[in-house]
Design goal:
The chain has 621 residues and is α/β, with parallel strands linked by helices. The chain has helices spanning 42-50, 83-88, 93-105, 111-123, 127-139, 154-167, 184-196, 208-214, 233-267, 274-291, 351-358, 393-398, 414-420, 425-428, 437-449, 467-479, 491-497, 517-547, 555-584, 589-619, and strands at 2-13, 16-27, 31-35, 57-62, 68-71, 172-176, 200-204, 217-222, 225-229, 313-322, 325-334, 340-345, 366-371, 377-380, 403-405, 411-413, 455-459, 483-487, 500-506, 509-513.
Length: 621
Amino acid sequence: MNLLSVEGISKSYGEKVIFEPLSFGINKGQKIALIAKNGSGKTSILNIISGKDNPDQGNVVFRKGTQIAYLAQEPNLDSKLTVEQSILKADNPTLKIIANYERALENPEDQEGYQKAFEAMDQNQAWDFESQYKQILFKLKLDDLSALVGSLSGGQKKRIALCIALLKKPDLIILDEPTNHLDLEMIEWLEEYFTKEKTTLLMVTHDRYFLERVCNEILELDEGKLYTYKGNYSYYLEKRDARLALENIEAHKIKLHFKKELEWMRKQPKARTTKSKSRIDDFKAIKEKTHKRRNDHQIQLEINMERLGSKMIEMHKVGKSFGEKVILEHFDYIFQRNDRIGIIGKNGTGKSTFLNLLTSNDTADTGKIVWGETLKFGYYTQKGIPIKKDQKVIDIIREYGNYIPLKKGKKISAQQLLERFLFDRKKQYDFIEKLSGGERKRLYLCTVLIQNPNFLILDEPTNDLDILTLNVLENFLLDFPGCLIVVSHDRYFMDKVVDHLFVFKGDGEIEDFPGNYSDYRVYEDSQVQEKSTSNEEKKIKKEWKEKSIKKTLTYEQQKEFKKLEREIQKIETQKKEIQNRFTTESLDPKEIEEYSIKLGTLEQELNQKTERWFELSALQE
């Protein structure tokens, strides 16, 4: 069932054409991701579809009665309202019934009011919705419903807006970077939520694991054209490579044809026949195609790094608290030249404080921190570039000099450097306030890297960067010879660039884990499984003692039980082998897709066999 049709929409700002006429449709049940370079108009497309903006031409036609919810990058919430008032303002009648019931519970003396609220819950079948409402609030950590929106951080506001969008239960949810400002636990919950729910989605996101596991269709806006891929992110990568390869073959054929026609043109006399004039016109068209170049530049990051001494940073018995809240306690670590550390943990566990201690922006309460003499920080923070009035892109770079040193004694001008970061000469003289969010982040990243740091700290570097830029940044970081610390909720990015983690668990506890994020999740899941198995065994023993019922297995059940143990162990080994391949091998898109399907099948089989194993286990003495 078609929910909406986008018919030939285009958008320009002054002389700048954002995108030419585009057309596509969205059907019920589709989970579509829109992929394009920064500045190509992704957010503009979402704004037009959601009704927040109008196209210069074209229309968006909705099926009658279609309800939509839009999560913008920067949600527009009333700062004077509380969290609860903001959610109720979404005009969901079931939510108001639940809120009325919650108030009745707080006023036990009013029995009549409670009875009416209870009956309303029954009549409107609000109990299941209440359970889901509470779960969403819990998962998004919106526990203080009385807090004023104006007192909250940007991340908290984004989570409120996400909560409102989910509870609205619309026919179509439009999401602009939904994983920004969510911690890893929240992202994984949202991923699971959308995988299970029969929700129709249109989203812009740079989270490639999210794309892989949630989306079933990719729309790519490239060179002003829209390409559709009926599959997830792995499928998109495979088919996109095939498309580009085909384009290269066609370009080569056109070039050969052009050479042939050029030779004919040079041999022709000045007097032309009608037939030759037609061929001349064809030649002009071929020439135009031949000289057309894909605007598919690669950011080349060959920045020279300051010499690095033997001593980096040493932390000895470092402690830090804010009142009764402990951030670090007797923390020891000596940073090495090639350390590639990822930092993960829930919000409020001290990640930012830790970075501030490292960079001397805060002081420790106890212990000592020793910095090497040749240490030079490059610190990419979430604050971004401070915008000065009437400042242009080129002005930002020239603050660091007109020439930038590269490897092997080479150097490039500030203008050439910006071109490598996808800012053409015309763009370099744009005012910074005109740049998109992703373009500003790309420019800021450039200003950090050109300072030749040997100790690089990246705090949420993936927010608002397009996937092409992320791929190039990852390749640069893999070759970066200094020390690297990354705080990021982008699991794909973390898996690719770090080799061990600092896991902030709260109350001053930091676990140094040897591996990347996927390794840690496998380890964490195994710990949970062991714990749940242990709890299940205790429960079985307790019930057996309490009831004093002696249960035994039949001969056939004993054979099945032993067989299940062997099969479960075999499946777990297969799972581990595939997971190791994801983290240790360089897989092509087709292999990624095949292994992802195999992993899902093994997971389902393991759950079924484990459940049966527990059933038989409960019957044993």
